[in-house]
Design goal:
The complex is a heterodimer. By secondary structure, chain A is of the alpha+beta class. Helices cover about 30% and strands about 20% of the residues of chain A. A seven-stranded mixed beta sheet of chain A has the order 9-10-7-17-14-15-16, with helices on both faces. In chain A, strands 12-20-19-18-13 form a five-stranded mixed beta sheet, with helices on both faces. In chain A, helix 13 packs parallel to helix 14 and helix 20 (about 670-690) packs across helix 21 (about 745-760). By secondary structure, chain B is an alpha+beta fold. Chain B has two domains: about 1-75, Beta-grasp domain (Ubiquitin-like (UB roll)), CATH 3.10.20.30; about 75-155, [2Fe-2S]-binding domain (DNA polymerase, domain 1). In chain B, about 40% of the residues lie in helices and about 15% in strands. Chain B has helices spanning about 20-30, 80-90, 100-115, 120-125, 135-155; strands spanning about 1-5, 10-15, 45-50, 55, 70. In chain B, strand 3 (about 45-50) and strand 4 (about 55) form a beta hairpin. Chain B is globular, with a radius of gyration of 15 Å. Classes of the chains: A alpha+beta, B alpha+beta. Chains A and B meet through helix 8, helix 10 and helix 20 of A and helix 1, helix 2, helix 3, helix 4 and helix 5 of B. The structure holds FE2/S2 (inorganic) cluster (2 copies). One FE2/S2 (inorganic) cluster (FES) sits at the interface of chains B and A.
């Protein structure tokens, strides 16, 4: 308890209770038995252990101990710990709101304290997979309810009345019969002496009594700091006597320094030292890339010093990687049979008997996450204790890896989590934090901050995979699909962790390819091999991006071949409302969730399609050069449909006057932030569809800053984005994710709209100047 | 040693004269509200005001700034236009991760000081130097219009 208060800066220990068995509240380590593999949790289950899902299946699962998450001071201020990383999704507001609601706390007296990396204490902290709310809504409700019950119990004891006669209301406990009331501050000390109630004894609120949940009326807790420049990101960390470093890294994955000459770099004013960081053998894993670091009194000197380095590289086994050539390889692979990953009916026979056969190939390039704050971390080592400040999505993984690299026990490493200036998956990988730790160690523990320049960020991301999706369908004489054959070719994230991994791992297959929810009798999915030549990592919504692009474009192509309306055709393809067990469609992953609780619900998918098309006025007349395009996709257990309106002018310039997005994510905790996430995903989707591309030549990345890796700016962003949230007030329903699911349907909706506007079918991303007329 | 006027205060800076204002602010003076995003005038994260003009601090060496009036995001809470912009930003919930937002607020404030009622085309022109990777553009546009309305109604 004490450690938490100190680490987190919570200002009161008056709620702390020592003599309570933590075992009752903590998922014990034994429950784990899981190891991080392939960056995706799960895996190895002891044979006799029942399969676990959701937060239970994550390393260290969840914790719902109020003593870990809540502190109440005698002045009544309530500190609530947020143990997930804030990167723009609003989690530092939304999760504490859940606690505050059940606690009947007055939000004005709540402050939010960021947890350091400590999964045993706080439960799983790796902030990815769109699961913070999905996994922690119920635990955080229980935290708030338990703390409320303790306050009520303390008040009842003081008044010598039965517990049933008192109730908590807005930071006070009341005894209506006598009109007595006590504030939370007055009760804090006595409440802290009580045992934490059993989970079974908690009374959760009825949804109609929620004050904050589902309302979306609270400003982000960080908003004021952000707009006034006070918000602290990892790159803003300042420590006494801190040095600043930038690193020259091997340009090709698996490369290393042959030799280097630091003489000129050391002449740059304010440069202090040049240090080599050893490269690790492949697989890349989360290891630092190695290279040569320049350490200086300030960042500018370090950057200038790095320019003056002379380095000869051994570029290693991937020095021939070339995106254009690789695309040809992927096309060849996609035209041959591959490993069958889902098979129903007899696709070959059905294709042969079809009245019409169509095939199309869709290409989507590598992408870099490019968070506006590039990776950065500061580390110092004082008396054998390593302190880290980092913008990290993975505080616990970071702690574990830093400890390993410095050869320290984990309890000698503290990872302080700053705000993240965007993450999008990049900051799940702690390579940059390990660099800072090694450099601090090289400086005998002096504080060192490593800043990645934008060039570093783009050249050394963990890239979104490159992919070729080949689809083939056979239609009957009325245009109805008899057969569906999908070959997906893409280097796997698995290759970043296991060098011989040439096929996609279950999470990648479960991202919209095997679990396509179409009612087609003959359906086969194949995954031909693909070798990775760079660090493949997860990027917001991961493999869903190319699958939604390919599948939702191909369905539109089939609809036009059949002479049918796209929306009607898509709904027919999905078929009647039903709940599909993911295991029956070869999806063993199911986003890590229970197949019983989270089946694929085609009724919900149909409803978002109806909602988006209704709101957008599907079928309406549009001006010349305009077109409407539809796409729908299910990912991270949330259903999203998008209708984009595009305007393509005489020169072929693309404008986007309006996008309608319908979402069914189940219960909504903070609808305002849900809207903002969907607006943001829409603009990021527009950006990757129209401009995003990372290419390789001679093994190295071709794009080094925003002139070459372009991002959508305000003038080309959709002028209007309308988010339509399907009712989400049934809090007994399971929650869906929100950070990622908005992204995948954007590219196909745009491309389908472009087809409607111009007759031009885009099968390769980005769109760039494919529409330009010369 | 170079002396600069930053947020109305004379500050001496002991850094090489070619140092960009961005790093002088962040590393030299501890004013970390001005952000690094690209370093070569492509993203707007480092936007400050120099004599009232939106200026990219990452490509402005401190040697060029003697005698000029430099304002950073840290001073906007004291600025009549800046306050309105910040208030509109909060009430419409513009920020997501927030990292680009000091630059956005500085760009929007400079725009409104020069053009109290910007049309969409003016907003496009003034704000397209600033990238937001989180995609807050539709709210930025709405917030600029809201702030413009507030400024018009202000006594
Ligand atoms: S950091 Fe100055 S414009 Fe990007
Ligand atoms: S709010 Fe994250 S980059 Fe703009």
């Amino acid at each position: 308890m004490k450690a938490l208060v100190e680490n987190s800066g919570a200002d009161s220990d008056s709620f702390s209770i020592i003599n309570v068995s933590r075992r009752r509240f903590l998922k014990s380590l034994a429950l784990g038995g899981f190891v991080l593999a392939g960056g995706f949790p799960p895996v190895a289950l002891a044979e006799d252990e029942p399969k676990k899902y959701g937060a239970d299946a994550m390393p260290h699962g969840w914790v719902d101990n109020p003593l870990v998450f809540v502190a109440i001071a005698e002045d009544g201020s309530v500190s609530i710990v947020c143990h997930r990383s804030e990167m723009g999704q609003g989690i530092r507001t939304s999760l504490p709101l859940v606690v505050a609601d059940e606690l009947e706390a007055n939000w004005l007296h709540v402050k939010v304290v960021q947890a350091p990396g400590d999964e045993v204490r706080f439960g799983n902290q790796d902030t990815d997979g769109s699961r913070s709310m999905r996994h922690f809504f119920m635990p955080m409700r229980r935290v708030g309810a338990a703390a409320r019950l303790m306050l009520e119990t303390a008040a009842a004891a003081q008044w010598r009345v039965p517990l049933t006669e008192v109730r908590a209301e807005l930071h006070h406990v009341l005894h209506p019969a006598s009109g007595k009331r006590l504030s939370y501050g007055e009760l804090a000390k006595a409440a802290a002496k009580l045992p934490v109630p059993d989970r079974e004894s908690l009374k959760l609120k009825q949804p109609e009594d929620f004050r904050y949940i589902g309302k979306g009326e609270q400003l982000s807790v960080d908003g004021r700091d952000i707009v006034s420049g006070r918000a602290q990101y990892g790159i803003d960390t300042r420590l006494p006597d801190m040095l600043h470093a930038v690193v020259a890294r091997p340009p090709v994955m698996g490369g290393k320094v042959l030799h280097y000459d630091a003489a000129e770099a050391l002449k740059v004013p304010d440069v202090i030292k040049v240090v080599e960081i050893k490269s690790s053998p492949l697989p890349a894993d989360f290891n630092p890339l190695g290279g040569v670091a320049v350490i200086a009194k300030h960042t500018w000197a370090a950057i200038q010093g790095r320019k003056a380095l002379k380095i000869d590289w051994d570029n290693g086994p991937h020095a021939a990687y070339d995106s254009a050539a690789y695309r040809t390889e992927m096309e060849a692979a996609a035209r041959q049979p591959g490993k069958v990953v889902r098979n129903q009916g007899d696709v070959d026979a059905a294709l042969n008997s079809a009245a019409q056969r169509l095939a199309a190939e869709y290409y989507a390039p590598h992408l870099a996450q490019a968070p506006m704050e590039p990776p950065a971390a500061a580390v110092r080592i004082v008396n054998g204790h390593c302190e880290v400040w980092a913008c990290t999505q993975a505080p616990q993984l970071t702690r574990e890896r830093v400890a390993k690299w410095l050869d320290l026990p984990e309890d000698k490493v503290t990872v302080n989590v700053t705000l993240l200036g965007g993450g999008f998956g990049r900051k799940s990988k702690p390579d940059y934090v390990i660099e800072a730790a090694l450099l601090s160690q090289a400086m005998h523990g002096q504080a060192v901050k490593v800043t990645w320049t934008r060039e570093d960020d783009l050249r050394h991301a963990y890239f979104h995979t490159v992919s070729l999706e080949r689809l083939e369908a056979g239609l009957d004489s009325r245009g109805n699909p008899l057969a569906w054959l999908h070959r997906t070719v893409a280097p796997s994230i698995g290759a970043t962790f296991a060098p011989d991994s040439k096929h996609q791992i279950p999470p990648e297959l479960g991202m919209g390819v095997v679990n396509v929810p179409f009612a087609i009798a003959n359906l086969r999915v194949e995954n031909p091999a693909a070798e990775a030549h760079t660090r493949i990592g997860w990027f917001r919504s991961v493999s869903n991006i190319p699958r939604a692009f390919a599948i939702q474009s191909f369905v539109a192509e089939l609809a036009s071949a059949a002479g049918r309306d796209h929306k009607d055709y898509l709904l027919d393809l999905i078929g009647p409302a039903r709940r599909i067990d993911p295991r029956e469609i070869s999806d063993s992953w199911n986003q890590g969730e229970s197949p019983e609780i989270y089946p694929v619900d085609t009724g919900r998918l149909r409803r978002v399609i109806e909602a988006a098309t209704d709101a957008a006025g599907w079928g309406r007349d549009v001006p010349k050069g305009h077109g409407l395009g539809l796409a729908a996709h299910y990912s991270f257990v949330t259903y999203v449909a998008v209708v984009a309106e595009v305007a393509v002018d005489e020169e072929g310039k693309l404008g986007i006057p309006r996008v309608d997005i319908a979402v069914d994510c189940g219960p909504q905790v903070n609808p305002e932030r849900i809207r903002s996430q969907l607006e943001g995903a829409c603009i990021m989707g527009v950006s990757l569809a129209s401009l995003g591309e990372i290419g390789f030549k001679d093994g190295a990345v071709l794009q080094d800053n925003f002139h070459a890796y372009q991002l959508t700016r305000i003038d080309d962003a959709p002028r209007e984005i309308r988010v339509h949230l399907l009712p989400g007030s049934d809090y007994d329903k399971p929650l869906g994710g929100i950070g990622e699911p908005g992204l995948p349907p954007i590219a196909p909706a745009l491309c389908n709209a472009i087809f409607a506007a111009t007759g031009r079918r885009i099968r390769q991303l980005p769109i760039k100047d494919q529409l330009r007329k010369d | 040693m170079i002396t600069l006027s930053i947020n109305g205060v004379q500050r001496s800076i002991d850094l090489p004269p070619d140092t960009p204002l961005l790093w002088a602010l962040r590393d030299g003076l501890g004013l970390t509200g001005t952000k690094y995003g690209c370093g070569i005038a492509l993203c707007g994260a480092c936007t400050v005001h120099v004599d009232g003009q939106a200026t990219l601090a990452c490509v402005t060496p401190i040697s060029e700034l003697a005698g000029k009036n430099i304002q950073t995001i840290e001073a906007m809470a004291e600025d009549a236009t800046g306050q309105k912009v910040q208030a509109a930003w909060l009430s419409l919930g513009v920020p997501q991760c927030g990292y680009c937002q000091p630059g956005q607020v500085m760009a929007a404030t400079a725009l409104l000081k020069h053009n109290a009622q910007p049309a969409d085309a003016d907003i496009d022109k003034a704000m397209s130097r600033n990238i937001c990777r989180c995609g807050t553009y539709t709210r930025i546009r709405a917030a600029i219009k809201q702030a413009a309305g507030e400024l018009e109604n202000a006594p």
